Amino acid sequence: MPALSIQNVRKKFGNKVTALDDVSLDVDSGEFFVLLGPSGSGKTTLIRCVAGLETVDSGKIIIGDRVVTDFPPGERNVAMVFQNYALYPFLSVYDNLSFPLRARGRLSKLLKAQSSVGTAQSTSKLSSMLGYGPVNRQTLKKDIDDRVHTVAKMLQINDLLDRKPGEISGGQRQRVALGRALIRDASVYLMDEPLSNLDAKLRSSTRVELKNLQKTLGITIVYVTHDQIEAMTMGDRIGVINKGKLIQMGEPHDVYNLPEDLFVASFLGDPPINIIEAKVSQDDASSIEFGGYKLTIPGKPSFTSFRGSKLKMGVRPEDVLISDVGASAVVRLVRSIGRTNYVSMALTETQESVTKVTTEEVNLKDGQTVKVLPNISALDIFESETQKLVWSSKKKSHSARN
Ligand SMILES: Nc1ncnc2c1ncn2[C@@H]1O[C@H](COP(=O)(O)OP(=O)(O)OP(=O)(O)O)[C@@H](O)[C@H]1O
Ligand SMILES: [Mg+2]
Known about the structure:
six-stranded antiparallel sheet, alpha+beta
């Protein structure tokens, strides 16, 4: 049974904006699922629907074995980190962190009063429905204190526990908001771009900490980001969303290597994949022409049905080869960051940009003319009109249409 199942969810705002268009996805228990998409693609709307902060127009949301589509937020047992991370301004960092747990303490009193009327069984059921585990009054204070310090240490905010949100930086506030969700016992943790305000170094270390914590605790996380590096490095699986539609789901490596369409191909990868105009050769149905060069594909797949169609070749920068043969290109800029070299070129015939990335030494000068080829074992071909992948040399079973 998945920890979270989203089934055919649709959501419109007014008549014009379709924020979610028939979204379905399952997240396994203990999975780190990343929802990746550009601004306005529907990421926040989707997790707000899961949390119960938005109603869905149609479709179902199931958490564990409960259909929660019509449940109020408090009965869904989810913890959420909001994109704009509102904290309680008059409470210290310590009290902000412990708030959800102290709420649990207050609840236990309430439940105790109720249980004297109802049965013990109904009490524990309600308690677990609300997402609060059984409470031991003796250990409650110490338990809260331990948890606050563990979470604060992990997020490197343990020196700030006495301060108010107004007295800490934006990045620190964001970590308090993250801690406030992690401190709870929830069935699913929903995180909306929780590291966006951290500087690059802290973001990178917090990613590692969060991923480790998630693995150690075995918690289920749905993590929203528009940052493909974050998605690639943190996700057990990624779901790519665009214009309210979930376009592709899979393990990061698979989505990167076998993008199903040009949007996914271009969204993952930095520098982005090279997209180059191409067409099937008039005189050879297994050759593709680009930049004035005829590339014969080994294995002789037949591209007959694409003759006359506009095609696009997708070539990752690490799969661009400079060779004795290939399309003529002029080197525009060579730059190095650490051991990685970036060569920006323009195809002579079409002026299309091509970027090559390599850790090998590069002896090229700006303005020099070279010949470029794709690594033939890492070539994707898309149809311009549908934007869909129609052939890939990485997909053995995926042969061209006849
Ligand atoms: N309350 C609302 N009323 C009207 N339209 C809304 C509302 N909330 C979101 N939208 C619209 O729904 C679409 C999806 O918005 P959403 O906030 O889910 O995007 P997002 O992927 O989270 O973007 P970002 O990365 O910028 O946070 C957008 O077109 C947005 O303008
Ligand atoms: Mg958002």
